[in-house]
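Example 3.2
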Amino acid sequence: MRDGFAALFQQDKPTFPDTFNPCYLTMNTVSKTVLCLLYFPAFLQSAEPERRIALLDDTRFRQGVVVHSPLPGKHVVEGKLTPFAEAEPKWNVAQWHSRFSLANAQPETSAAGVVRYFDGAKTLLFYPKSEKGQPDLALGIDATKEYAEKVPQPGDAWTHLLLERKLIGMPVLTEIESVHFRLRFRIPKQERQAISDWNEKYHTAQFLFYLTVQNRNRNNPGYGDYYWFGIPMYDARYRHTPGHQAADVSSEKKQGTGKFIFNLPGKEYFAESSHDGEWITIDKEILLLILQGLESAWTRGYLQQSRDLSDYHLSGMNIGWEVTGPMNVMAEIADFSIEAVPLK
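Structure, written as tokens:
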């Protein structure tokens, strides 16, 4: 589903920032660890802002993005989009299975200073100011252009437009007492092209966030293995996105990662429906949910080389569109952050 994404994380085990004061837990199951963590009152409260460690930087995307090739399998850099200044981007753009490439897009600047990149089907909009009610970035796919020649059917590949990156420090689960996720988003454009063979179960557009929870212990045979922890924000088929727990499977026409996906229902994160096109804020403590996903992966037979929490790190993330039908969609995002709080 997120072709080649795991290749970003095959590197030496990182050192977490010196400000961390790890508590070495010896419990080897999520359920026991959750009980242990409940003894920390701070775990159940909002952490003091000064104790939070940012796992993302340039969250307003001022430094632009590195664009990777649409060809699936591995990340091949095709170019950079730097809308405001020449700087080294912190973010990557994956555009798997697209017929177009944003690397070929030329910047267009509006009177308000918004910089647009458009490749014939996909759009990135960079906003110059952080103002109330205004996004930091917008991502769009006009899949009616992507699928002008052939609409995908079950088993076919589909177009992606994802922002992705490694997390700063890649914290180990046993050294943090909370993970705070915050994002404002809305879906202002959600247009469906009428076609005779529309498949209600398959054809859709999904706006999703995924975090990789990965075994980073080089001395363990499961080194590099991971699961996908997802937050579903929009699915054209449902006003409120249901949960999903299954493997990212392959087909003859599309290579999947084979890794376990753990998505709780969208209502776990917000009560509104993103179908209404209004701004929605997710402001959520997610560590317990990440641990729940890890235990679910173990129960279902994944990540069997290690059940030691000290092997598992928060390693990377992506956010964006996966579109399987002829739809024209846009998402706007703002105030994006992921922060961890170290154990005292």
